[in-house]
């Protein structure tokens, strides 16, 4: 926008040039304005009042949120159960309860306008490059990954060790233990207990278990237990630190939780208590972004399809009730059919998805 003073100065220059014989179009071109712009300024008193757009009274858009809806968003976002959650998780959780008020972006705008956006969510973790393995999971108990991480103690130089097995398809933690030492016997026992809890003995095909190249997870006793259970071993590439991305991302989520003690754990029992509470929260309360914001336990049990179908219906009804708020289609709530350790190989994923659809149709 051109200020009133610049308008008046420009108009004087053009008029003076025209008095001296210049053509209006040429003078306006030198002044970097269009002749029609100058005519409009003169016709609408634009040289006296200036640009009226900043002070124009515009009616709110017909699809704008009402004051009651904005207030409802603030009330919901400040409920204790949503106090630590970003809108990306709040909206799906409300959808599961049969409530739709606005989209995630609308939640963000309302919260930002009230100075509360800085309390919602964390920055996204950087994308990790997945291993070149072609293992693909289209159901629970097909692809697991596991690892061990250090839990600091308040005693300098002392550590606790968290062993954990994650189901890649559902993101559910299917087995975990915390010990005071790092030993292959702990990994063996964790494998045995997890296989029993997940009922591997009744499966025709046993899962693939992906891990890194650490000595603990590749010990002879561990390999013997995997062979006895019928589990196929898969390992990361040598000298590649991020080939076990799913479980590494899980460890990052665990250690960035507010309940994780920054100063270390007081005792082994304290570490085990924290691990148990974290696993319960992660499996049953955490809405995972990688599986359409359902909990890992819901996806592991196969309940995610009904949940996502109800969300889709709710969104369709919301669009029908207020079509001006939807410029295109509703949010994609289709279930994630296949999960792979290597998303770059789309052809492998497409083949597995097609096979999964065939199996579902036959069933």
Question: How would you describe this protein?
Answer:
This protein has 14 helices and seven strands. With 363 residues, it is an alpha/beta fold. It has three domains: 4-51, no CATH class; 67-118; 136-291, Nucleotidyltransferase, domain 5 (2-Layer Sandwich), CATH 3.30.420. The protein has a five-stranded mixed beta sheet, sandwiched between helices. Strand 3 and strand 4 (173-179) form a beta hairpin. Helix 8 packs parallel to helix 9. It is elongated, with a radius of gyration of 30 Å. The termini are far apart. The model is unreliable at 116-132 (pLDDT under 50).
Shape: elongated
Just name the CATH architecture of the largest domain: 2-Layer Sandwich
CATH topology of the largest domain: Nucleotidyltransferase, domain 5
Query: Percentage of helical residues?
Result: 40-55%
CA-based gyration radius: 30 Å
Name given to the CATH homologous superfamily of the largest domain? Ribonuclease H-like superfamily/Ribonuclease H
| The first-level CATH class name of the largest domain | Alpha Beta
Q: What is the number of beta strands?
A: 7
Element-level helix/strand string: HHHHHHHEEEEHEHEHHHHEH
The average pLDDT score comes to 86
What structural category do the secondary elements indicate?
A: alpha/beta
What is the helix tally? 14
Kindly give the count of domains.
Answer: 3
Largest sheet: 5 strands, mixed
């Amino acid at each position: 926008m051109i200020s009133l003073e610049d308008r008046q100065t420009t108009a004087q220059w053009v008029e003076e040039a025209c008095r001296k014989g210049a053509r209006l179009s040429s003078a306006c071109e030198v002044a970097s304005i269009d002749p029609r712009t100058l005519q409009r300024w003169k016709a609408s008193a634009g040289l006296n009042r200036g640009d009226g757009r900043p002070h124009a009274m515009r009616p709110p858009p017909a699809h704008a949120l009402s004051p009651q809806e904005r207030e409802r968003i603030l009330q919901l976002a400040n409920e204790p159960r949503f106090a630590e959650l970003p809108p990306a998780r709040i909206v799906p959780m409300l959808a599961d309860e049969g409530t739709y008020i606005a989209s995630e972006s609308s939640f963000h705008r309302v919260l930002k306008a009230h100075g509360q956006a800085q309390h919602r969510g964390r920055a996204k973790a950087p994308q990790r490059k997945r291993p070149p393995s072609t293992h693909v999971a289209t159901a629970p108990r097909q692809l697991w990954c596991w690892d061990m991480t250090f839990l600091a103690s308040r005693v300098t130089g002392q550590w606790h060790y968290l062993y954990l097995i994650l189901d890649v398809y559902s993101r559910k933690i299917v087995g975990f233990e915390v010990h005071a030492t790092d030993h292959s016997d702990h990994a063996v026992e964790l494998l045995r207990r997890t296989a029993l809890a997940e009922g591997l003995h009744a499966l025709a095909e046993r899962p693939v278990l992906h891990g890194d190249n650490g000595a603990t997870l590749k010990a002879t006793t561990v390999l013997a237990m995997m062979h006895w259970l019928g589990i196929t071993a898969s390992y990361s590439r040598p000298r590649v630190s991020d080939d076990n991305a799913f479980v590494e991302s899980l460890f990052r989520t665990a250690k960035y939780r507010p309940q994780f003690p920054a100063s270390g754990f007081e005792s082994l029992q304290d570490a085990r208590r924290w691990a148990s509470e974290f696993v319960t929260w992660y499996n049953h309360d955490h809405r995972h972004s990688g599986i359409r914001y359902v909990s890992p336990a819901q996806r592991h049990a196969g309940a995610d399809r009904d949940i996502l179908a109800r969300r889709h219906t709710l969104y369709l009804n919301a669009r029908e009730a207020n079509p001006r708020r939807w410029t295109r289609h509703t949010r994609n709530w289709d279930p994630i059919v296949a999960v792979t350790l290597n998303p770059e190989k789309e052809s492998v994923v497409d083949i597995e998805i097609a096979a999964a659809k065939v199996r579902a149709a036959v069933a």
